[in-house]
Design a protein that fits this description.
Methylamine Dehydrogenase, Chain H, 3 helices, mainly beta, 30 strands, 5-stranded antiparallel sheet
Length: about 425
């Protein structure tokens, strides 16, 4: 593969927005047979919380979605939905709980294994749920929580992201080393995957790209169909996802971007990508002319993972779920470390943010994580809500939402979280 160390053509089009963020994988597994039934709503653990001391800025009503990705036979594969009217009063309330195994029974390709990643289409009419131990991607209608499609893209669906025009879904088939594309018509709820159109990343491996298992398609450049794909063995690919067949238009080798990149956001004409392993962590800052800066996170923590822009893009929160168990705050004007939030529970992972930007919701992993290995080992599975302070330069404890078994032997494991604005 030819080395290319600039993003001139595509980065010059980036003007803002956020990308998806996810990482951590597990060996592929085959789905087990399950009864065909409908989704159910049932009670879940709720938090005992003192009276609020402050109220976030009033804004649109929203829902916090969180998934326990542990296996269904261990009580997992459930989606928990919390209402903002409770959350912003420092209360978890009683969530709506959707049994994903039941919800997907008899739909399309059927039931997937280990629902790992969660995202929405642009209008938030539908959610995407990617399964890391099978190749299934669910499309769920958000207003009634109905799974309207289940598509199997192959060995492993690690992450799914919708194109800016809502006309296609890109899926990182990690163990298959392919980038899959599903054509999407969300209005008609019709979704089609042609395996012959998958981009075979294994065929592009060489000494600079030794393991092209895609972690996730991170960011679509506004106005284009170009997306940034991180790789398990290190490196980064820019893929024209709108062409047929899909093709790599630019690339960065492993000596530029370290292995297992998992988070990415864009703001102010710059792109931020992170990478993290059990022993290291990095954040890369790209400008239109190319790589502008590499921030070494290892001195603050390891397994750098989730990312979230706060303070209207002025600050970037970056979670270390390995050593450190903290969130590093980066000033996006100077691209320097501005501080560190230690008041977060162990193994902080994927993040979501309230519509007003006042509260960041952080997935925190359980003591026996289903993915990610030892660096992802936490204590109590759930979501830790942090109140944004100092216009995004810092944050403080707001609310812990326990999900699933809270004991030391618990297999409950929260990974995917996302915030949906209620229309």
């Amino acid at each position: 593969m030819e080395r290319t160390q600039t993003f001139v053509a595509t980065l010059s089009l980036i003007v803002g927005g956020v990308g998806a963020l996810v990482a951590g994988c597990s060996p592929a597994a085959q789905p087990t047979a399950t009864p065909q039934a409908t989704a159910t709503t049932q009670p879940a653990p709720t938090a005992t919380i003192p009276a609020p001391t402050a109220t976030p800025t009033p804004g649109p009503q929203y829902e916090l979605w969180a998934i326990d990705q542990s296996d269904a036979d261990k009580g997992g594969a459930k989606l928990y939905i919390y209402a903002s009217k409770d959350l912003e009063q420092k209360q978890a309330g009683t969530p709506e709980v959707v049994d994903l195994t039941v919800a997907a029974g008899g739909v399309g390709a059927g039931v997937g294994v280990r629902p790992h990643a969660l995202s929405f289409n642009g209008t938030q009419t539908h959610a995407l749920i990617a399964h890391v131990a099978s190749g299934h991607v669910y499309v769920m209608r958000t207003k009634d929580r109905k799974v309207v499609a289940s598509i199997d893209v192959g060995e492993q669906a690690h992450w799914a992201a919708v194109s800016p025009d809502d006309k296609s879904i890109l899926v990182a088939n990690q163990n298959g080393k392919k980038l899959a594309r599903i054509t999407a018509d969300f209005a008609a709820e019709k979704f089609t995957h042609d395996p012959a159109q998958d981009l075979n990343l294994a065929a592009l491996e060489d000494k600079d790209y030794p393991d092209n298992a895609p972690i996730c398609p991170l960011i679509f450049a506004p106005g284009t169909q170009n997306t940034y794909v991180t790789l398990r063995g290190g490196g980064l690919l820019v893929v024209d996802a709108g062409s047929t067949p899909m093709k790599v238009v630019q690339s960065l080798p492993k000596d530029i971007v370290s292995p297992a990149g998992c988070g990415g956001v864009a703001t102010g004409g710059k792109v931020y990508i992170d990478s993290g392993t059990a022993t290291s962590g990095h954040v890369y800052v790209f400008k239109p002319e190319g790589l502008a800066k590499t921030l070494v996170m290892t001195e603050y923590g390891t397994d750098t993972h989730g990312m979230m822009l706060v303070g209207k893009g002025r600050y970037l929160w970056v979670g270390n779920r390995g050593l450190g168990d903290n969130i590093v705050v980066i000033d996006t004007q100077t691209d320097t470390v501005a501080g560190m939030i230690t008041a977060v529970r162990p193994a902080p992972d994927i993040m979501g943010i309230s519509p007003t930007g006042d509260i960041v919701y952080v997935a925190v992993r359980g003591p026996n994580p289903a993915t990610g290995g030892a660096p992802a080992r936490g204590e109590r599975p759930g979501v830790h809500a942090l109140k944004v302070t100092q216009n995004g330069a810092s944050g403080e404890d707001w609310l812990f939402i326990p999900i699933g078994d809270q004991g030391a032997t618990s297999t409950s494991d929260v990974h995917g979280v996302a915030v949906r604005v209620v229309k």
